[in-house]
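Exercise 7.
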Amino acid sequence: MTDIFVFGTLRDLSLLEIVLGQLPERREGWLLGARTVCAAGHDFPISIPAAPSDRSPGLLLIGLSADDIARLDFYEDGFGYLRRTATVTCADGTLRQAQLYRPTDDALRPGGPWDLSAWQDRHGAVTRETALEAMSYFGTLTSAEMAALWPVMAARAQSRLAARTRPAPVRDDLPSRDAVVVERTDIPYNKFFRLEEHHLRFPHFDGGLSDPVSRVAFVAVDAVTVLPYDPVRDRVLLVDQFRIGPYVRGDAQPWTLEPIAGRVDGGETWEETVHREAREEAGLTMWHLERIGTYYPSPGAVTESLASYVGLTDLPDDAVGLFGVDHEAEDIKTRIVGFDTLMAMTRDGRVQNGPLMISALWLAAERARLRTLPRPDT
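Solution. The predicted structure, written as tokens, is:
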């Protein structure tokens, strides 16, 4: 049996229970001569040497089994956290030898103070939801393979949380999702995207249940789109890029004109994603956002939910260029077109991207109002 001291996110008991599958015997303790701080540029903590009077609080997990340790190793090792021996001071003043996970990445540097309550408020829900998927791979993936999936798992977790908390239209004449009877779920592919084959029965409108059916879902995460609009110059910015969907379909020209778009990463709000993607894909700063709405672009097969925006910004002639994030292999060219040209493109078929068509039609309806909005700095 082994004692483990946790000083960071695993002090969240709900997360600890997900990782271990149960809550072990535990007591409060401290590392003397240490402080818990944020890793610079990250939301997770590290423990660093400090003055003898400083102490790093945590939980001493007592008498963990070999399976408990294997689960903790699986959760921690892929991120470069390995077990080290340490002396823990318990609340009653006794000293106990324990192990704790310390990062092996020398590039991690101390940042500002780290607070568990603040982390729980900002990142707790999405981390717990991500950990549920991560720990489902215990025994089937290596720790490194699981860690490589963490960013997309976090984005999927963010999507599931949004689906649960987003206000839905009141439709009292329909059954709840709990009325769907799932007999089996298979996952034949699981990387950046995921395929799920659900064998299920769903309620009929006549009150009965369907025969067993198989439905395959392409699991993509929530995403945002934003159409940049300059209300003074009356023009918009479009992005042009190669798209695998039209290419695989056989389209002779698999480059599409689109609004700026990107997935919502774990822990991000829609608006934070909009501003990040505007910087990455077009080098733009928006001074006002208008949300068009949220919708499922292809609910018969794809889980993706889109939140579309129009963003007010400045679009001088030199706002165009080449953009994209290198590690995502993006190759983006931006183009500026006047509002009248955009509407002509929508009518004659040059606009073939659904979110762009929706955004253009919304802009046509709201353009007069948007052109009267004052800039915050004027």
